[in-house]
Amino acid sequence: MHKRHLTVAAAAVLALTACSTPSSEESTPGVTDDTVVIGTHQPLTGPAAAGYSAISAATSAYFEYVNANGGINGRQIEYIVKDDGYDPANTQNAVRELVTEDKVFAVVNGLGTPTHSSVLDYLDQQGVPDLFVSSGSLTWNQPGVYPNTFAYNADYVTEGAALAKYAIEQDPDAVICVLGQDDDYGDGVIEGVEDVVGSNTIAEVQSYATSGEDLNAQIGALMSAGCEVNVLGTINGFTAMAIGTAAQLDWFPKWYVSSSGADYPTLAGFLGEELAPVLLEGMVSVNYLPFSPDGEWVALFEEINAEYNDGAPFTGNTVFGMSVGYLFAEALAAAGEDPTRESLVAAIESGELLGNGILPLSYSDSDHAGYRGVGIATVSDGVQDYVDVAYVVSAGQVDAVEPDPVPLENDGIPGN
Amino acid sequence: MRRLSIPLRALLITVLAIGGTFGLDPFRNYQLATAAACFAAVAGLTVLVGLTGQLSLGHAVLMASGGYGFAFAASAATGPAILVLAAGLLGAVAVSGLLGLLLGLAAARLRGPYLAGLTLALVIALPSAANTLPIGGDQGLRAPFLPVPEALTALIAVEQWHAWLAIIVAALAVTPLVMLRSGRAGLRMRAVLDDETASRLSGVDPGSVKTGAFVASAVPAGLGGAILAIATQQVAPGGYGLAFSLLLVVAAVVGGLGSIGGAAIGSVLVVFFPWVVDELVAAAPTDLGQRLDGNLAVLVFGAVIVAVTVLWPGGAARLLDRFLAARPRRFATPATNTER
Amino acid sequence: MDRFVFLFSAGLARGAVLALFALSLVIVWRAARVVNFAQAALAVAAVYAAFAVTAATGSYSAGLAAGLASGALLGALAERGLMRRLGANAPLPGIIVAIGLVMVVQAGLAIGFGPEHRPMHPPFSQRPFVIGGVPVLSPYDLFTLIAAGVVMGGLALLFNRSSLGLQMRAAAFAPETARLLGVRVSRMVTLGWTLAVAAASLAALLLVPNELGLNPHAADLLFVNAFAVAVIGGLDSPAGALIAGIGVGLLGSLVTGYVSASASPLAVLALLTLVLLVRPGGLFAAKEARTA
């Protein structure tokens, strides 16, 4: 019994010297005179790592480039990447550690709808800026509920609507079908297509699970339904598999693909360099970032990739990761000489950030959506590039707009 | 010490654990709450496997069912926080108990690997079920946030408050299990494990003992799910996948089958150890590129699991027993053979 | 009806791979009375070896041979190096060690080869024959069916018709007696693991060209489904693995095509529950499992 008493006494002593009490906020977390610490959660291991682990590597490489050129307002950006294996339980752990242990200034580009949903309320309670979530869910754009959370990707509904609109403009009588992932991604694309063609009038809707082994059953069903335009709400691997499976059946319909599954270099990796130009010819997709192969942004990003990312394969993920990094750097520069969490959020809501997209960003104090519009891109002779068509989608209404790409300035380092 | 009744001992340990939370920072308190949730589930699992020889690979689904029960009931309840909490816990007990009963009825007829196969298929079907049933798909359900009570706001942070709730709920989940195990029900379970035919001859029905044990094991697991729902304010199928379910089995075996103390050790290990490895790996100089990120920690954790199991197949509780050789082997774990 | 024929033939090829993998689980079960949870990870490691050899030599058959050989080697190593040390009658430590091994192998592969999907090209065309306007099996599907069939037939002959097979069965069912009769029991157990992991490697090798590509997790789902198949068929029964494998393959394909992809795991769970409620030891339950 003595031992127990001792332990109780020890506990009581600990209680008196409690170090767990809520501390009063004095300085801004994560910001010192020469550093800014930010963090993210990404799937670096597990099945989802294949598609996404390159994003945070690209973002880190961009920040290294910025740091090597003096940082932002004299501060080096320290980007802590936590692995969550695309498992919401791990995301909880990772983000709590970022906030309470690493004391990050902001969480940037946390990846995935189910994963990031699990920390949305927590980040809100802690008042941590939750910037540029890497997912096209509409959840992130609720400034009234989550005042510190900002979306980045064009949302899945917007992408589905723009794809359907373009398909109808090309051929008003086309039989339109959808193949979607069995989660909010596929559902969002279906909703967008329905906004344009009318509800319950999609000729055939098929779904797949990411754990599924093949798409034979789904493609067979689409084929026998006589689909002419297949809108895909699929990730890259399943886009390649859908197109490849159809080709094996001697079926060559038109493919209209959401930005998350339409990256030419990645698709070519799946299909093989010989087949890719043939099978992907004419593929229509949407995007909002400057991935044009001969563009100035790609030239810069390729340089950074070679120097700071060990020359990793250059794909849409690289452009995405570096573009997010650029936008954060721009926001940090705009947050002033002595940034606080409030000034960072205010800088984004000011609507003055340009980003590097082909359309303007839509941020304001009542809109946290990021990209509200997308441009149409096609593959022609093995080159994927924008055609001169873009749409802005609001409340189910799709309007054509002129693309308005942001030019590269100051070697891609904001704020000087 | 042995004279102390089980509830009194449980109370003592609970108070100690709550005192201990003052020594931890918020993140550690959050990890403690997670460990408490695992402890409840692993305690249920270890009693099930250790005492009746039924191997369940699906305790993550039982936890999830408790989490969903908590989220539904607590969101529906209105009133003071204590009522919301009570409603949620009742919901967790009801849903996980019901699922446990259904599984238990099937399990009573099945031998080790067949039950393992059925429960494994259950884990794989969880995301599909979440997409099919009205329970929020892969984003899951929100559970209400339980704030720190007014009187304590100056003293403790929300993570510590949730750690307290986690410890109390875990105590509520595990104490009846310990009492059950050391009482007549425990005797019956051991009798069935030793020899089904003999126990049937002495008037114990193996089927109902096995079903009962499954329910008794499911409810603490469900309460473990409720703890996670309290600490994280949500429940989603992605958090209860195959890897997590297998980790619960790892915790039960590494701790020592049948031992509640072992369950506690095992749970703390599987919650803290990957994190410790991750920290160590992060501290080591890495010029080996991004492929090592995350993967090296998984590799080291796996290697340690292999090494520990090969060196001490009996688990930590056995090891502890050896150190405390003077202690009466009242709860010594029988060598179990779950396959037949 | 067209859709039915198409889905049926797609399910058939998938079922053959499932059956082969389930058979590999049955072999380990019969040899060592454990379910090898590391079977998929070891098989994928062997497929990486096949991939590397095919990439270096340009020959599919060289890769195939390398894959089977490394699968056999990995099986033997896992048994001799790890499982043997746990002693008999220890199914749970066996499962835990296997889980740890899965983590080591998958993380090791991800470190060595990266997490991305590497496309594997099949040796035969995946373009199906069209019969009466309906696409049915492709040459590669036929290759899969034949390869799986030949290996399963060969293993059945080995087990039931050869003295080696007899020794293996004796060692599994009555190790003490077998030992007294001069059977080298431990060697038989190692042989069981060797054959099993080699067979599992072939199943994974046949599957990967139909999937996204080679990845450390490429066979995870195959293992889970094959475990369900082995349980449905009866863990002791190679014939059960074959029939249940084809059945689950067809079920998955038809449910995915007619209902939805998410309904497929639920359908497998329902089938499993139904079979186990009627026959708790699987469709082809071994009679020795009966009690009082």
Notes on the structure:
The complex is a heterotrimer of chains A (416), B (340) and C (292). Chain A has 416 residues and is an alpha/beta fold. Chain A is built from 13 helices and 13 strands. Chain B is mainly α and 340 residues long. Chain B has a domain at 6-239. Chain B has helices at residues 6-20, 26-52, 59-76, 81-107, 112-132, 158-182, 184-194, 196-201, 206-232, 242-255, 260-283, 295-311, 316-323; strands at residues 141-142, 234-235. In chain B, helix 1 packs antiparallel against helix 6. Chain B is globular. Chain B starts with 5 loop residues before the first helix and ends in a 17-residue tail after the last helix. Mean pLDDT of chain B is 84; it is low at 326-340. Chain C has a single domain, classed as Orthogonal Bundle (ABC transporter involved in vitamin B12 uptake, BtuC). Chain C is mainly alpha-helical and 292 residues long. Helices cover 72% and strands 1% of the residues of chain C. Chain C has a two-stranded antiparallel sheet. Residues 288-292 of chain C have low confidence and may be disordered. The longest helix of chain C has 31 residues, at 2-32. Chains in contact: A-B, A-C, B-C. The interface between B and C is large, with 53 and 54 residues.
Q: Uncertain segments of chain C of ≥5 residues (pLDDT<50)?
A: 288-292
Quick one: overall form of chain B?
A: globular
- Helix content bin of chain C: over 70%
Secondary-structure element series of chain C: HHHHEEHHHHHHH
- H/I helix tally of chain B: 13
Specify Rg of chain C, calculated over alpha carbons: 19 Å
By DSSP, the count of extended strands of chain C is 2
- End-to-end distance of chain B: 38 Å
Please estimate the helix content of chain B: over 70%
Mean pLDDT of chain B: 84
Biggest interface and residues each: B-C, 53 and 54 residues
Q: How would you spell out the order of helices and strands of chain B?
A: HHHHHEHHHHEHHHH
CATH architecture of chain C: Orthogonal Bundle
**What sort of overall outline of chain C do the alpha carbons produce when their principal axes are compared?**
globular
Mean pLDDT across all amino acids of chain C: 87
Spatially, the strands of the biggest sheet of chain B line up as: 1-2
